[in-house]
Design goal:
The complex is a heterodimer of chains A (about 110) and B (about 425).
Chain A (H helix, E strand, L loop, with lengths): L1 E7 L4 H10 L6 E7 L6 E5 L2 E5 L2 E10 L4 H12 L7 E7 L17
Antiparallel strand pairs in A: 1-5, 1-6, 2-5, 3-4
Chain B lengths: L7 H28 L5 H28 L23 E3 L3 E5 H19 L9 H24 L3 E3 L2 E3 L3 H4 L8 H19 L15 H20 L7 H29 L4 H18 L5 H18 L2 H5 L7 H19 L19 H31 L6 H6 L1 H6 L15
Antiparallel strand pairs in B: 1-2, 3-4
Helix pairs in contact in B: 1-2, 1-3, 1-7, 2-3, 2-4, 3-4, 3-6, 4-6, 4-13, 6-12, 6-13, 7-8, 7-9, 8-9, 8-10, 9-10, 9-12, 10-12, 12-13
The chains are: A alpha+beta (about 110), B mainly alpha (about 425).
């Protein structure tokens, strides 16, 4: 079992979510996050005074997947989240030791 | 002929009304601003605010004369000259007869109408317009569309003795539009449809949810619009008199009827009466009663309002059927509301409540008035739609009207104005 974590642009969430749902991914956790990376921030101006905002808002997706699904899920995220511009995000995969479904107590892949 | 002197009562009321009508544009900014997503709330409000700037300056330069100048004696436009308001400080208003109010008071009152009309259009192109292009559009549009149409509808000509010169085409034909059902609302609605076509659909339209980010702001805006609208309608009597009283009560009860009509429609169709529905219903009633407010009895105002509420609640669904992204329903509310109100005069018009008006179909007047009203509706709608398409495409093909897709996704508040609407004190955003 793997945990797939993806950082994407906020405007891409609906598209990615839809594509994953169409591919049969049943669950995910979505959070609003801020971070710095290669994209750099933007500058806001209030009465002529500049306020550099270097933290950029992103969306973090977390998906638990069976080993055999991992590559196709990554594929879908990379394809749909891409705009070709700097700041499209990242996807990484970490191993998961155990998953338990709270309601039933099921363990392992049955709990995904 | 006795000399007409300034009436303090009439002048006071029209001055107060002018300020009321000005307030409608910031009110509209809140109404529209609350309806878009948080990332474009400021841009939405700025599209209204900049209209106040642009139109006021053009009005004092040449706009007033282009709408209300009578020297050219044309039914289609006023006169091509500077407004010259500084030379008219001591003149009285002559608009199909002399009113005991200074010309500059009339000019101020009419200016506020010229401001809000283009501002209404902005709702159709939420989230995706280049601000500089919108500003340019407003300047061209009021010059080629609003000022001439205001002349057609609101300019009753310079009356000296029995001779009238320079009356507008529709005004001279007895088309009844008391406060701007055709000149303001049908005009803005048709223009909104044209611009929605020019700019195209927003990225993700009908796929991703584009929910209103603040319904309390929408309700605040609706309240300010309702309040200001008493100046719009009752002020159009250009005096503190019985006609103003009739327009005032009709404005109130038609709006009440429309509010109920819209939320009842929602209750039966969707199961829940909504706050956005109540706000939209109120506006649809205000729109519909605008042309009719001084020509119908209060019971008829309630019926017109209720009909407008129901019809507009249904009309806002048309954009999904025809696939045009009129983001904030300028077509569904202003075009349809304006048509309902303008045509309703042909049925409910009563010479008993206003001796200057004709009797409609229900008062034994036959089809005459309805025919006139249909002429006004058709002419204004067609001219506004075609001209706006031309102006819109001209801007799109030259400097571009729509922002680039990455700017649209990031939000036009940041990319067009370098600001964000809400700083809630989060540490991450550098505040507290």
């Amino acid at each position: 079992m793997k945990l797939i974590t993806a950082i994407i642009k906020p405007g891409k969430l609906d598209e990615v979510k839809g594509a994953l749902r169409d591919a049969g991914v049943k669950g995910m956790t979505v959070s609003e996050v801020s971070g710095v990376g290669r994209q750099g921030g933007h500058v806001e101006v209030y009465r002529g005074a500049e306020y550099p905002i270097d933290l950029i808002q992103k969306i973090r997706l977390e998906i638990l997947a069976e080993n055999k699904e991992v590559d196709s899920v990554i594929d879908i995220i990379v394809k749909t989240a891409s705009t070709g511009a700097i700041g499209d995000g990242k996807v990484w995969v970490t191993p998961v030791d155990q998953v338990v479904r709270v309601r039933t107590g099921e363990k392992g892949e049955a709990a995904i | 002929m006795s000399e007409v002197t300034i009436s303090a009562g009439d002048t006071s009321w029209v001055l107060a009304s002018s300020a009321l009508v000005l307030l409608m544009t910031p009110g509209l900014a809140f109404f529209y601003g609350g309806m878009v997503r948080a990332k474009s709330a400021l841009n939405m409000m700025m599209m209204s605010m900049v209209t106040i700037g642009v139109v006021s300056v053009l009005w004092v330069m040449y706009g007033f004369k282009l709408a209300f100048g009578y020297e050219a004696d044309s039914p289609w436009y006023g006169s091509f000259s500077l407004s010259g308001l500084g030379d008219a400080v001591n003149e009285l208003t002559n608009n199909g007869g002399v009113y005991p109010i200074p010309l500059l008071v009339f000019a101020s009152f009419q200016l506020m109408f010229a401001i809000i009309t283009p501002a209404l259009i902005s709702g159709a192109i939420a989230d995706r317009a280049k601000f500089i292009s919108w500003t340019l559009f407003v300047a061209i549009w009021v010059t080629l569309v609003y000022f001439p149409i205001a002349h057609w509808v609101f300019a009753f000509g310079n009356k000296v003795g029995d001779t009238v010169t320079g009356a507008g085409f529709l005004a001279a034909r007895g088309v009844e539009d008391f406060a701007g059902g055709t000149a303001v609302h049908i005009n803005a609605g048709a223009a909104g449809l044209a611009l929605a076509i020019v700019l195209g659909r927003r990225i993700g339209w009908q796929k991703s949810p584009m929910r209103p980010h603040s319904l309390p702001l929408v309700l605040l805006g609706a309240g300010l619009l309702w309040f200001g609208w008493f100046g719009f309608n009752a002020g159009s009597a250009l005096g503190a008199n019985a006609t103003a009283g009739l327009a005032f009560i009709n404005t109130q009860v038609a709006t009440a009827g429309a509010l109920l009509g819209w939320i009842l429609t929602e209750k039966f169709r969707d199961g829940h009466p909504t706050s956005l529905g109540a706000a939209s219903g109120a506006i649809s009633g205000l729109v519909a009663i605008t042309p009719a407010c001084a020509f119908v009895a209060p019971w008829a105002a309630v019926v017109i309002g209720f009909l407008a509420g129901v019809i507009c609640a249904l009309a806002v669904g048309l954009k999904y059927k025809f696939g045009f992204d009129d983001a904030l329903d300028v077509v569904g509310v202003h075009l349809f509301g304006g048509i309902v109100g303008s045509l309703a005069i042909g049925f409910f018009g009563s010479s008993k409540v206003n001796s200057l008006g004709l009797d409609g179909l229900f008062y034994g007047g036959g089809m005459t008035l309805l025919g006139k009203q249909a002429l006004g509706v058709g002419l204004v709608m067609t001219y506004s739609f075609v001209m706006t398409l031309i102006i819109g495409f001209a801007i799109e093909k030259t400097i571009g009207f729509r922002v680039k897709s990455e700017k649209e996704l990031a939000g036009v508040d940041l990319t067009e104005h370098a600001e964000s609407a809400y700083e809630m004190g989060g540490i991450l955003r550098g505040g507290r």
